[in-house]
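Recap slide: JMJD8 protein, sequence and predicted structure.
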Amino acid sequence: VAGTVPEEPRCTVERADASLTYSLFLQRFAFSRPVILGGVTDNSAFRALCTREKLLAAFGPFPVRLSTANTYSYRKVDVPFQEYVEHLLKPQDPARLGSDTLYFFGDNNFTEWGPLFQHYVPPPFRIPGTSPAYSFGIAGSGSGVPFHWHGPGFSEVIFGRKRWFLYPPDQTPHFHPNETTLAWLQHTYPTLPPAQRPLECTLRPGEVLYFPDRWWHATLNLDTSVFISTFLG
């Protein structure tokens, strides 16, 4: 199937469990490196509300704003949520540019989606001086956002598997801003010497990735995925 991507078993991102304290999080990760958190929250209730059937029943007629799946997200398109799920939620076409691929992530109308987000349990850690904002998304296998950076945040997979690639702020990755992550993985990644490869890992449902401020990152959904990020701005 176009867009289907095998899982890479290698994980070079450090992992931590519920024993990680807030002070250790601040000391070891908050300002220096990413970490995958397991077992820090229980979002089974939120997950139960995020099935295809539940989401279509609750939000089907409401418009959602789609962004192009490229580094700068030049174009925005509004379509009914039901139309996105039934007609646009497909595996990534390897031949299409990111600037020609529409993707639902981030542009959430909080008047309409707010009641759903009330059921989400965010990670228990914060960066001093920041406040959280949610970004909810659904995307097909092989889709993703190519390399970009912004402020710090967390990202949790609700359904599916999501592969992440990360570089520190001083190590700008080689990529074309209109190329999809899938194309980068197929064409550029195999040519990278080991020392130039990113930190990477595949997240599964219930796992949360934390990424520090200004870290480059790209994502690749290995399945049709539902995910939510907590940006700290």
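The first strand starts at residue 15 and ends at 16.
The chain has one domain: 40-232.
(End of recap.)
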